[in-house]
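#random but structural
TW: two for the price of one
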Amino acid sequence: MESPRFLDENMPKAVWPSEIKSQSGPSGGKAAPPRPAKAVSKKRDEDASTDVGEGADEWTAAKTLVKPPDQLELTEAELKEEFTRVLTANNPHAPQNIVRYSFKERAYKPIGYVDQTAIHFSLNGNLILKDSDEGRRQSMRSAVSEKASLETSAVISEETEIKDEEGTEDTQAAGEEEAEEAGAAEEAEAAEAEEPPPPRVKEQKLANQFNFIERASKTLNNPLRWEIHDAYVEELQKMEKSKEKEKTKAQIAKKEEKKKGRKLTSLESQSDDITKISKAAKIMERMVNQNIFDDIAQDFKYFEDASDEYRDQRGTLLPLWKFQYDKTKRLAVTAISWNPKYKDLFAVGYGSYDFMKQSHGMLLLYTMKNPSFPEYVFSSESGIMCLDIHNDHPYLVAVGFYDGNVAIYNLKKATSQPSYKSSAKSGKHTDPVWQVKWQKDDMDNNLNFFSVSSDGRIVSWTLVKNELVHTDVIKLSAEGTTMQGPEGLQLQTLGCGTSFDFHKKIDYLFLVGTEEGKIYKCSKCYSSQFLDVFEAHHMAVDSVSWNPYHLKVFISCSSDWTVKIWDHTVKTPMFIYDLHSAVGDVAWSPYSSTVFAAVTTDGKAHVFDLSINKYEALCTQIVVAKKKNKITHIQFNPVYPVVIVGDERGHITCLKLSPNLRKMPKEKKGQEVKKGPEVEIAKMDKLLNLVREPDSTAGK
């Protein structure tokens, strides 16, 4: 395509053919006289004026080429010369020499990739999603405005019809006076006027149909993402359908209640009768069981092993009742706790210590009055790993689960579900909860308990306004276990808490046992520091417990086969006992400061009395006969001379201590026997002085 040509002052002016002839003439001749040329120019001007008109000067002025003063004067060869340029997407202003520090190679390295985007224009949009609250409000407003516009247009059309009718009456009166032809024309005009004008419809604003959530508007980066999205959508739809069904069921139930109000009252009376019968049936069941197990009940109450006099201070454990439940055969006993108010009632938690065989859990409460069937039965989705009964409110049971949750069961409520339970939002543990302990109510008289878990957190749970509120008391950091992270970062691993116990008198002081074998002495007041660290065991600390009488002494047991007794002011243990098998649990007796019992995985129960024999157990007895079965826990009854032992098969065995295992000080003639905590503290102090004596003599 040729480039447009513009008029230039330097270009030759257009000349008519007649003018050329008159100017040039024949070659070598004289020029023609000027008269004919004037005539021709006159004609030409007339023709031009008739063709172009008055705006000829303006038209020629617009077509003239305006040259800038600094334009180069180029020859035709220079104008025809071609210069090729390649367009690229690179930003010429982008920096090419950016350098960053590499932690891996410990040197500055240039970055090869540079962002080449150059933003020339940006505009923030005001698109709103249809499904959002603002989008719904706008659609509602537009609908209301459309309705209002339609109503106003209808009113206007009615008014125009009324006016047109009045006008037609006037035109008919005028038509009678005028001629027939004029009357016919006016009638036609009136008929046209009778037709109402079409209502003015307000122009509807077209809403933007683009939806950011639509899959068609997105690029297919990862098909897995859509599968996850579809799965979530299906789950949400199922939940909505189930909610709708529940609503409809509730509505139907309400209607039926209204219709059958009289029948419901009769049913309620029936339920009251059933509760009365159930109480009577429970008493009858206990009476029947007392008759069946009469010999065991007699042994529990009256039997004292007379052969203890000939055993040289050794004792025995007499098996009494065996508690078992059909639904807990494949579950292990993971926790035992006596009720502080009802001395014959105890709670048992069921779960599994094998992380490969995790299933449901159960919470049962048995009484020694009825060994055939539990008093309370609660089931849970996750295995129960620990429990504790409140001292002041014996109907409240705090429970820790394998999945990291904690819960509170209320025995007064006739429901199988916990009254309060933690969740992922309320700060649950990420690993199994190994122990829970009730504590004194806080300043606002809210119920309060603590939990310890393998995730290294010790958490305080407070019951505030019918929900559990958590507070992290301390995080266990394992010393000397820092790991090398990416780019030279130091990652500190958390210690795994397995057990803990609070001091009986000093409220803020508590001990924590860990999987590494260490025992930390901690305070509720310090969240980032430990008061002391004991290098206690070589394997996980399974249990740690303060002495109920002596304020300085505590005991610990571990899977490294040992039981150790400590003074918390001394870093080394006072006593060490090797039981030749992994120790599952240890417990102090409630009647003496020097008696404790331990259970091992080989099925044996060991009872020690340090005031009689400091070197070995007074009683070592096999409680579980089967090889594959292991004993997991042991607890002393707070009043009666019995212990209960739990195993991996879900069985609870009640054992009576022989007289040698619960010796009290002998009465001397003419002297009163001193009893009470002071005597027990003196007994323990005497033992500790014997142990410390060599050190003190060496120091002298």
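TW: number two ↓
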Amino acid sequence: MGSYGRVNATWGDHFYSVVVNSTQGSCGSTRGETGDGQIVTRTLVLQIGVPLTLIHLLHLLIRRTGQPFFVAEMMAVVVLSLLSPMKSLYSSSSTSLELLVGHGLPVLGFMMGLDMSFSSFWNSDLGAFSVAAGATLFSVALTSACGFFYLSQAFEMPHSLFLAVFWSLIFSNVSSPVLIQVSTELKLIRTRIGRLAVSAGLLSDLSTLLLFGFAITQATTAISRYHGPEGTVAFIVVLLLLRGLIAWGAEWVNRMNPEGKRMKSGHLMILALLESVAIFLGQAVGADAFYAAFLLGLVFHKEGRLVREVKSRCNALCSYLVLPVFTLKVGMHVDLASMNSLQAWGVLLLLITLITMGKLVGTVVACSRMGIPLDEGAVLGFLLSIKGYVHVVVAQRCFDHGLLEPVLFTQIILAILGTDVLAPLLVMTIVRKARRTSPLPRMALQWMDSRLELRVLACIEDKRDVPSMVNLVEGLRGPTESKLMVYAMHLVELPDDSNTVLVYQENQQHMEVVTSTEALDQQNQIAATFRSYDQQAGDGLVVRHMATASSFSTMHEDVCNAAEDMRATLLVLPFHRHQRVDGRMDLGNLGFQSVHRKVLRHAPCSIAILVDRGLGGTSLLSATQVSHHVAAIFLGGPDDREAMAFAARLAEHRGISLSIVRFLPDARSEPSSRVSSLAPFNVGPDSAGSMAEAAKEAEADEECIAAFRERYVAAGIASYVEKYVSSGVETVTRLGELESLYTLFVVGRGGHTSSVVTSGMREWEETPELGPLGDVLAASDFSVTASVIVVQLHRTETGTDVELL
């Protein structure tokens, strides 16, 4: 399940008591002689601790290759099957472990249902339907034909045709949770292909899981003649009829447990009782317990604090208790000794080939009809062949009912493992090759047509960043006919030893990270704010919210990969310091400062750092409420020209008044200093050809100013003024005179190391990532009301950056 936290005491105590009581019952003959309670406790710790430790160690070893956590669990299954002491330990208390798995797997099914919704069917576009249908139908046809021949000839099993169709349906299913984790690890989740894969995966997963209940019921009926599918149909109908009542009850619990207060345990126990009743009724009519819990989660109310609390606690319960024990159980039934012939290994390879090729061919055919290139279709096909927990649960269920021979059960488990190992590796190879052969163009505001769609990646590090970021986005909307696509990305810090877990919401408008209750609450507040803004913004603006969790050492990679995948023209970062109630800036988060510095070096587009001092207040402003007086400070150089393009975009908004303030060296400065003041940040006075480069940059500056004055100043949209200074101290003094006139300053980050206009500023510089002017404007003693935006042009070479450390 992937999200880690402290196991809920209520659920944990319940499971512990079940296991201890049942185990003590099976060992009652020796209780009085050896202190059996301690033996039971040690046995339980070993049965849970050994698989859990092994899973995490394996995941640490394979994570760099893009492998999901599920692969580590399947590898642990194989390792445990080879450990004779674990088999002895398992057989000594198999009853208690069976009871624990029987109670725990429905919790996993319930969690899977919570992450899905019927709205996937009508919120997905036609492309996702086409890909899902093509991959599923072709996979069913291929695997059922081959499976029937194999089952009837090799095992001479009764009902071979039905079982072949049954397994072809199961193998046509894609595990959407594992698919999402693989897409996240490979940095594909925000790309067009990644979103299409997730949408098609959710459709395929939900469709086949809905049929799974009928299939498993009919499969067991074929052997035991116990129940038919009619009871399962009746159970689904009852749940759908009770959906409104369940939603009302969830809303009542949400009202009784407002944000900021501890969730009442009694309300969680009511939910546990509801799940138990649903499972009992489902089993009474012939439905599988896992499937009954999944259906309850599917129809359960998806909004509010109750769902967030249940997800957080049950994720921990499954991660630390249910899945390790289930891994142990599956490992005890895997018999590698049965794989003692070339025929057995040949069947395994054939099974992996059928699972992969069925999805691959079906997806490529569907993509070809949609005009999607072959390599992207192959990526989709491999992603949609990924398997997960449902497939292992079904295999174990069939093995328990005698529907699978030991060798066939082992082959299926190894095929699931082999498919999930190969898929990420093949996808990684294709993606890396495509990225090497398709370099990105230079992405900058000054080179794009203002009438084209502007794509902005706005990073959020704290919920305090949201109002100012939204109001800045509103100012960037530009001309009426232009379009703006905004990706709001919430950055969540994780320790270095944690893994990124991202849950994709079915409406495809945002994604969220499930890490802890506090982080989840903040993510939902941020998502709600951006959804509200998206609904109020009207035409021409699309907002998508997502979140990613990673350590500070790798967070810049997530940000840069997201900007590259989205083809963003502008990346907006919040300053790592925030304003205190007394108006001064706090010390900020040094981890985020380090992330910003790395992003400045490696970003695939232009960057803007926002120093917020109440830009628009604490509320969201509509287009008619925006009113800002903006000053764009121009010294010269590529970053300042990009800042001019940024300011020009703001000037298109009817609620923004823009002034261009250009600082020039006065007559007392030497001529060489006037030229060098306009030199780009990477040209020093002693470097070869520096004067020629400086002259070229000065010419580009003059062309930029002339074009701006012709388009905006002459039309009365903006004003223009020049100020002459002879030193950096005088520049700071002149800036201080402007502080009370403007609510927002826009400056370029360029260093201007040889400029008279900024001379001496580096001696007191505290934040090199803002540049000399940005550092002055962001200082606590400069202003308490004026926000600052520092702009850097897209760097094509990382080595041209100024020193940041």
